[in-house]
Structure formats: structure tokens, C-alpha cells
């Protein structure tokens, strides 16, 4: 096993930060040096602050997280791969246009070579798995693996990822993708019902988050370091974690959203322009926290009801428009609240229930470290996140 | 069909009610831009809204939105362009939300790619399914006319197709700097036509109510 070369650390945290990272790197290598490798601590470290830190470690840990044996890689693709592919033209178009995914200082020749590898990598996985369907944005995911682990390992990892985490996006239709997007609003509703109501009234939909979800944010973040940090997190978590992360971004921008015009265009426009300076580590731990509090099983029913609720919301909107002169905000909001009251009390139950056994759950899911080394901080942040629920529990 | 137009304008006008006296709102024209992958939808919309050809564009995933305010006959109008993904799977289940309340549709094909021209009937059919009316103005744009040596779609063929479907045809290049006025003209023509469209006329809302002029049957004209 090669000794770790000093990582390219950023100069933003001073010495403590440096020392902490060095310690973490040493810990990761220690885990990797034990046979058989214990995956649980690797998952925890992929989630916790800084993730896997450097690409050299990612090369070693990503295969473990995906349970891929790097001694058993996909073969080199056959000569006729491109001719035999029905997706070649579309993939070619998308890869040719994906210049922004490559480091800006990379020489053209090298980039072009990687683009060729990217095409082959995508087509090979598609060819071996005829049940999988290419979507625009898939190339944004594959390029991330290509740049970190190189062509052969990338193809193997991406195949595993595509048959698992990305499976729903690769169905013949995007119905399942749409279904996953339907989790977004219920998550937001749990934390900030006002924001949720505002977005429903604007009828913004969820398409602003589509590219976030199906590219794991690779399409929208311009700094590659942020992309790989998120990939560490997502690879170590449940496949629905990206939608929790999307919700956390929207929640993080709540005041901006509420300050904009309550119409589809304004809200869509605001949200689809993702800020590049997001506090990633904080958001990651919030996403983990939300996942524990409101796991997908709890939200599944609400997500399924999204369609019906949307109809109800638009009826409500017509009503709202019709009574535009009756100080709608006050009156209608009261009525709306009344209707929601029953739901709200159900939600407060929902919010308290998981708290009792959350530490058990954390351990099971390997999220403990994501939520901060200190358990106190975890509890504190949870309280900050759910003041409304707290008030309802202790009126 | 008039009801559709009305409700969309109501949304545009009343959506951000902030106080007892709403600020004068500019009217909004919502235009959806559709067509095959890589025909240049993003470049066209970018060109109109930002005034330049974008250095790098990528595949559009889902729907992008661009906006520009223009003054027409001393009235400020916001032109909203909704730029959609070209890949078929997106339009099937994702894009329909964005057809709602549109005032005009722009179909784009790539003049150097005959397949993108042959896809147009599919797009037109798709559009019909999403829009409850045929009265919404539609225009056809052949893009990339600067690539003279690679043209696969002759103008007379395209013109015939446009006539059959009652659409005006524009051939342009989002890239060619000399065509800047042309791209501008396409959308401005559309805005002018929509503005003078009887069914879109409405008074401003000093008294918080919205009056709509009786909608007269619009006639489809060629604006070439």
C-alpha cells in the first residue's frame, strides 16, 4: 500500500484544520489496510466533515462504498461499440458540449482524449445493460468518476451505480424520477411550512431541482471539489439522499425565496440559479439530520399524494384569485391553516417519534459522524431546525 | 380558449400582490421554445436575452428560464423565454408543466440537420396535446444558417412546411454577429403581434380588478 502523499489542503482552516485532516487521512488508510476492509467506518468518514478529502483516497474508497472489486474490472470495450449503439448520437452531442466539466487549465488535447473515453464509458455501460436508458445529465455523473478514478475503474463503478442508485432515472420513462422529485415538497413542508405554502402557491413545480437530482449536482456546481465532496456523501448514503440535499438547499434559501414574486417564473429562476458558495458541510449534516428525522418511508405517502395535493392547491389558488379584494392573505391563510391543523398535529407526532430512537438509527445508518462529533451539537441543531414542532410539543 | 389566455394574464398580473395599491406591473409574455436536442434553443434564447452568443452551452436538463424587458409603444413588457430540454424522455413527463399559460410557441430546427426538421411534426403534435387551443401564435425558426456549406434543409421545403402549418418561418443564426438584429426581430415581432392581439388586451388594474376586452377571434397571419 502506497503511503499517502500530502493532500492539497485549502488554506482556510489554519493548523487545527490541517491536523484534523491529516488525522482523518491516516484513519482512512488504517481502515483500508485491514483485510477484509470494514465498510461502515469508510461510510462514516465519507459523510463526515470534508468527506474523503483527496482524490487519491476516493480512488480507493469509492469502489469499496459501491462494493466493487477493482481486481475485476469491466473489459476494454469492443471496437464496434459506437456503431452498435442507438444512443451514440445523443451521447456524442452531450459530451461534446460538456466542456465545463473539465478543469479549465487542462490542455485541449488531453480533454478531447477524456471526452472520447467518456463516450466509450457511457456506451459500454448502456450496451451491457439494455434495461438502462440514457438521459441527458448521465454524462455529468460519469465524467466525475472518469476524472477521479480513470477510465476502467470508472466504467465498473458507474455500471454498479447505474443499476442501483441511478436505476430510477434510467427507466424507459421519467415517471419514477418524477416520483422522487415528489419527495421534495413534503420534506420542505416538514421544516418550513410557510416556505412550502409559498412555493405551492407560486406553482413552481420541482423541475428546478431535476438537474440537481439526476446529475448529483454535477451539472450545476462549477467547482469540481464541491462535486466530489457531494459524491462522497451520496455514495455513502441512501439513494434518496440527493433529494434531501436538494430540499436543504431550498430551505437554506428560504428568505430569498419568500422575498421574490410569488409566481412560477420568479421562483423557478431564483432556485435554478444555484449559489456557488453554499456552506456544503453544514448542508450535508442538515440533510443527514433531515433524513433521520423524516426517513423516506415516512414521506412516501405524502409524496404519492403530491399529485392530488397539487390539484387541491390550484383549486385553492383560483379561490384566492377570485377573492383578491378581500385581503386574501389574512383570510385565506387562516382558512388554509384550519384545514392544515389536523395535518400539523399529525406532523408534530411524526417529528417527535424519531427523536426518541434517533441515535439507534444513526448508528445503523452510519450517519453519526455526519451529524458532528459532539452529540450535543446534534441535538442543538435539531432544535434549531424544528422550533415549530418543539412549540407544538411543549405549548 | 379565451379562458386560457385570461387566466394566464391574471396570473401574470396578480401573482405578486403586495399591498393596497399594487405597483404598476409590466405585462408578461410567456414563450416556450422547443425542438430537438442541439438545434440551438439555448443559444437563441440567450442571444435574445443577453445580446450575445454564449461561449459554452451545455445540454439543457429540464427547463431553463430567461427573461428580458422590452418597451413596445411605450409600454414595458417582460418577455419570458422557457428553454426546454431536447431529449424525448424529458418532454414526455417533465416539460408539460411549462406549457401552461404560454402566449406563444417557438419551434426550432437545425438547418444543417435534416433529422431535426423531420421531427417537427412530432413537436407540433406534442404541442397540440398540451395546449388546449390552436390560436396561440407559433413560429418556426431554422437555426445555424451561417453554416452555408452544411445546409440540409432547403428554404423552399421549410417554407412549404411552415405554410402548411400556418406558421411564419425565420431562418437565422444565433452565432453570426450580423444576425443579431435578426434574432432580435424574431422575438420582437412576436411581442408586437401578441401585444396587438385583441384577446391579450387588458386594462391596467388601478381598482384591483382585471377587465378583459372581449376576445375577438384572432386570425393567423404570416409575419414574414
From TrEMBL, chain A:
<feature type="transmembrane region" description="Helical">
    <location>
        <begin position="359"/>
        <end position="379"/>
    </location>
</feature>
<keyword id="KW-1133">Transmembrane helix</keyword>
<protein>
    <recommendedName>
        <fullName>TBC1 domain family member 20</fullName>
    </recommendedName>
</protein>
<dbReference type="InterPro" id="IPR045913">
    <property type="entry name" value="TBC20/Gyp8-like"/>
</dbReference>
<keyword id="KW-0343">GTPase activation</keyword>
<feature type="domain" description="Rab-GAP TBC">
    <location>
        <begin position="52"/>
        <end position="238"/>
    </location>
</feature>
<dbReference type="InterPro" id="IPR035969">
    <property type="entry name" value="Rab-GAP_TBC_sf"/>
</dbReference>
<dbReference type="GO" id="GO:0007030">
    <property type="term" value="P:Golgi organization"/>
</dbReference>
<feature type="transmembrane region" description="Helical">
    <location>
        <begin position="233"/>
        <end position="251"/>
    </location>
</feature>
<dbReference type="GO" id="GO:0016050">
    <property type="term" value="P:vesicle organization"/>
</dbReference>
<dbReference type="GO" id="GO:0005789">
    <property type="term" value="C:endoplasmic reticulum membrane"/>
</dbReference>
<dbReference type="Pfam" id="PF00566">
    <property type="entry name" value="RabGAP-TBC"/>
</dbReference>
<keyword id="KW-0812">Transmembrane</keyword>
<dbReference type="InterPro" id="IPR000195">
    <property type="entry name" value="Rab-GAP-TBC_dom"/>
</dbReference>
<dbReference type="GO" id="GO:0005096">
    <property type="term" value="F:GTPase activator activity"/>
</dbReference>
<keyword id="KW-0472">Membrane</keyword>
<dbReference type="GO" id="GO:0006888">
    <property type="term" value="P:endoplasmic reticulum to Golgi vesicle-mediated transport"/>
</dbReference>
From TrEMBL, chain B:
<keyword id="KW-0636">Prenylation</keyword>
<keyword id="KW-0342">GTP-binding</keyword>
<keyword id="KW-0378">Hydrolase</keyword>
<dbReference type="InterPro" id="IPR005225">
    <property type="entry name" value="Small_GTP-bd"/>
</dbReference>
<dbReference type="InterPro" id="IPR027417">
    <property type="entry name" value="P-loop_NTPase"/>
</dbReference>
<dbReference type="GO" id="GO:0005525">
    <property type="term" value="F:GTP binding"/>
</dbReference>
<dbReference type="GO" id="GO:0032482">
    <property type="term" value="P:Rab protein signal transduction"/>
</dbReference>
<keyword id="KW-0547">Nucleotide-binding</keyword>
<comment type="similarity">
    <text>Belongs to the small GTPase superfamily. Rab family.</text>
</comment>
<keyword id="KW-0472">Membrane</keyword>
<dbReference type="GO" id="GO:0003925">
    <property type="term" value="F:G protein activity"/>
</dbReference>
<dbReference type="InterPro" id="IPR001806">
    <property type="entry name" value="Small_GTPase"/>
</dbReference>
<protein>
    <recommendedName>
        <fullName>small monomeric GTPase</fullName>
        <ecNumber>3.6.5.2</ecNumber>
    </recommendedName>
</protein>
<dbReference type="Pfam" id="PF00071">
    <property type="entry name" value="Ras"/>
</dbReference>
<dbReference type="GO" id="GO:0005794">
    <property type="term" value="C:Golgi apparatus"/>
</dbReference>
<keyword id="KW-0488">Methylation</keyword>
<keyword id="KW-0449">Lipoprotein</keyword>
<dbReference type="InterPro" id="IPR041822">
    <property type="entry name" value="Rab33A/B"/>
</dbReference>
Amino acid at each position: 500500500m502506497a503511503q499517502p502523499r500530502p493532500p492539497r489542503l485549502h488554506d482556510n482552516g489554519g493548523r487545527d484544520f490541517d491536523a484534523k485532516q491529516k488525522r482523518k487521512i491516516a484513519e482512512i488508510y488504517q481502515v483500508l489496510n485491514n483485510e477484509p476492509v470494514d465498510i461502515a467506518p469508510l461510510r462514516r468518514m465519507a459523510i463526515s466533515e470534508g468527506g474523503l478529502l483527496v482524490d487519491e483516497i476516493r480512488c480507493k474508497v469509492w469502489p469499496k462504498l459501491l462494493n466493487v472489486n477493482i481486481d475485476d474490472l469491466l473489459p476494454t470495450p469492443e471496437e464496434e461499440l459506437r456503431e452498435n449503439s442507438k444512443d451514440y448520437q445523443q451521447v456524442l452531442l452531450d459530451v461534446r458540449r460538456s466542456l465545463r466539466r473539465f478543469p479549465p487549465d487542462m490542455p485541449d488535447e488531453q480533454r478531447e482524449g477524456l471526452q472520447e473515453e467518456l463516450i466509450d464509458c457511457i456506451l459500454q455501460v448502456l450496451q451491457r445493460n439494455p434495461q438502462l436508458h440514457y438521459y441527458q445529465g448521465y454524462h455529468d455523473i460519469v465524467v466525475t468518476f472518469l476524472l477521479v478514478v480513470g477510465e476502467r475503474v470508472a466504467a465498473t463503478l458507474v455500471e454498479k451505480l447505474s443499476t442501483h442508485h441511478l436505476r430510477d432515472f434510467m427507466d424507459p420513462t421519467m415517471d419514477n424520477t418524477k416520483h422522487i422529485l415528489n419527495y421534495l415538497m413534503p420534506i420542505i413542508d416538514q421544516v418550513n411550512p410557510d416556505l412550502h405554502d409559498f412555493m405551492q402557491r407560486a406553482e413552481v413545480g420541482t423541475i428546478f431541482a431535476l438537474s440537481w437530482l439526476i446529475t448529483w449536482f454535477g451539472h450545476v456546481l462549477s467547482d469540481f471539489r464541491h462535486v466530489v465532496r457531494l459524491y462522497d456523501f451520496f455514495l455513502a448514503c441512501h439513494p434518496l439522499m440527493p433529494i434531501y440535499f436538494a430540499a436543504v438547499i431550498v430551505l437554506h434559501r428560504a428568505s430569498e425565496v419568500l422575498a421574490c414574486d410569488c409566481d412560477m417564473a420568479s421562483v423557478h429562476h431564483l432556485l435554478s440559479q444555484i449559489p456557488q458558495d453554499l456552506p456544503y458541510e453544514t448542508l450535508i449534516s442538515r440533510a443527514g439530520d433531515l433524513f433521520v428525522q423524516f426517513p423516506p418511508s415516512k414521506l412516501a405517502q405524502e409524496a404519492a399524494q403530491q399529485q392530488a395535493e397539487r390539484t387541491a392547491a390550484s383549486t385553492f389558488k383560483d379561490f384566492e384569485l377570485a377573492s383578491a379584494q378581500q385581503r386574501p392573505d389574512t383570510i385565506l391563510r387562516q382558512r388554509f391553516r384550519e384545514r392544515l391543523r389536523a395535518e400539523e398535529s399529525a406532523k408534530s407526532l411524526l417529528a417527535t417519534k424519531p427523536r426518541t430512537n434517533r441515535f439507534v438509527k444513526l448508528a445503523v445508518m452510519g450517519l453519526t459522524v455526519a451529524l458532528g462529533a459532539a452529540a450535543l451539537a446534534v441535538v442543538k441543531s435539531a432544535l434549531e431546525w424544528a422550533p415549530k414542532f418543539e412549540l407544538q410539543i411543549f405549548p | 380558449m379565451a379562458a386560457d389566455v385570461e387566466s394566464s394574464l391574471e396570473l401574470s398580473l396578480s401573482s405578486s400582490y403586495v399591498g393596497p395599491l399594487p405597483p404598476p406591473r409590466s405585462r408578461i409574455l410567456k414563450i416556450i421554445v422547443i425542438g430537438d436536442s442541439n438545434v440551438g434553443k439555448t443559444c437563441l434564447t440567450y442571444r435574445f436575452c443577453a445580446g450575445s452568443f454564449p461561449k459554452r452551452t451545455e445540454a439543457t436538463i429540464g427547463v431553463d428560464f430567461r427573461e428580458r424587458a422590452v418597451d413596445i409603444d411605450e409600454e414595458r413588457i417582460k418577455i419570458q423565454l422557457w428553454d426546454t430540454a431536447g431529449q424525448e424522455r424529458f418532454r414526455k413527463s417533465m416539460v408539460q408543466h411549462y406549457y401552461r399559460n404560454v402566449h406563444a410557441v417557438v419551434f426550432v430546427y437545425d438547418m444543417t440537420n435534416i433529422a431535426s426538421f423531420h421531427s417537427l411534426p412530432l413537436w407540433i403534435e406534442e404541442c397540440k396535446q398540451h395546449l388546449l387551443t390552436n390560436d396561440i401564435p407559433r413560429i418556426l425558426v431554422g437555426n445555424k444558417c451561417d453554416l452555408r456549406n452544411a445546409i440540409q434543409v432547403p428554404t423552399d421545403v421549410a417554407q412549404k412546411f411552415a405554410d402548411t402549418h400556418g406558421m411564419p418561418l425565420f431562418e437565422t443564426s444565433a452565432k453570426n454577429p450580423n444576425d443579431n438584429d435578426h434574432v432580435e426581430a424574431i422575438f420582437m415581432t412576436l411581442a408586437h403581434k401578441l401585444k396587438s392581439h385583441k384577446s391579450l388586451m387588458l386594462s391596467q388594474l388601478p381598482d384591483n380588478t382585471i377587465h378583459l376586452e372581449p376576445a375577438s377571434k384572432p386570425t393567423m397571419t404570416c409575419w414574414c
